[in-house]
Specification:
The structure is a single chain. This protein is of the alpha+beta class and 257 residues long. The chain is built from eleven helices and eight strands. The protein is 40% helix and 17% strand. A four-stranded antiparallel sheet has the order 5-6-8-7, sandwiched between helices. A two-stranded antiparallel sheet has the order 1-4. Strand 2 and strand 3 form a beta hairpin.
């Protein structure tokens, strides 16, 4: 079944749908102005929705999704360049957190926004692991420190470059420089066998990083955990990701103190 359905009565034959289709699955030319999906469209279409979104007469339905079901774009709500510039410059990594949990509805709202982040070939393959248990967050931090101890003896150049000795010494004295008392840890993971899994996850986390401040939250990228998750089996086992998935990014989240 063709994923793209064109309402001939609404269509004004301007070729905009053909122009924006990333895989050129809609034929159009001035000599043959009536747009038409090619026979291979059901197999090749990535369901990105560009044809539906761009049509000025709402003539396109994509796999049963009609234009009337889509939220209209309100240009008056879009931020100015100066507003975005200010947001990007004001963004900071937050490390001191209040002892206040991030409620589930807040997390769900934030992740609902982040799911609109672009993905390679529109795979929409980003998965989220959200940890709010203080005990589980401490367990993961402890495993990261265990990896650091191993790296100090087995990967001295890496350990020196990252100054892992400082973090381990702090941990042994009761200072957690991994999770830093954050009430929430968010991790992105993806099937390996998709288009650009690492980039997909990093883009989605960047959305989270920037959107969090609008909800009064602060975030901090958790690079130590990602280094450890790459080659430390006990941490990989503790993360318990689905078969065929890898972790590609992690972030602390909470209310700034």
């Amino acid at each position: 079944m063709q994923p793209v359905m064109i309402d001939r009565e609404r269509c004004r034959e301007d070729g905009m749908c053909a122009a924006v289709c990333p895989r050129k699955l809609i034929t159009w030319s001035p000599a043959r102005p009536q747009p038409e999906p090619i026979p291979q469209a059901p197999e090749l279409c990535i369901r990105c929705g560009h044809c539906l979104a761009v049509c000025p007469t709402a003539a396109i339905t994509l796999e049963g999704v009609a234009p009337e079901e889509c939220q209209p774009l309100d240009s008056s709500r879009l931020p100015s360049y100066d507003s975005l510039d200010h947001l990007f410059k004001a963004r900071r990594s937050i490390r001191p957190y209040q002892a206040k949990p991030v409620d589930r509805p807040v997390l769900e709202k934030l992740l609902d926004t982040c799911r609109y982040a672009p993905t390679g070939s529109n795979s929409r393959s980003v998965h989220w692991a959200v940890v709010t248990s203080p005990e589980k967050i401490h367990e993961l931090s402890s495993l990261v420190v265990d990896w650091m101890r191993q790296a100090l003896s087995e990967q001295p150049e890496l350990a020196q470059r990252m100054r892992l000795d400082v973090v381990v010494t702090a941990w042994d004295s009761g200072q957690d420089r991994i999770s830093r008392g954050a009430p929430c840890l968010v991790l992105t993971h993806s099937p390996v066998a998709v288009s650009m899994p690492r980039e997909n996850c990093i883009i989605a986390l960047t959305y989270l990083d920037l959107a969090a401040s609008a909800l009064g939250l602060g975030a901090c990228w958790l690079g130590y955990l990602m280094h450890a998750a790459a080659d430390y089996p006990p941490l990989v086992q503790a993360l318990n990701l689905p078969q065929g998935h890898e972790a590609y990014g992690a972030m602390l989240l909470g209310y700034p103190s």
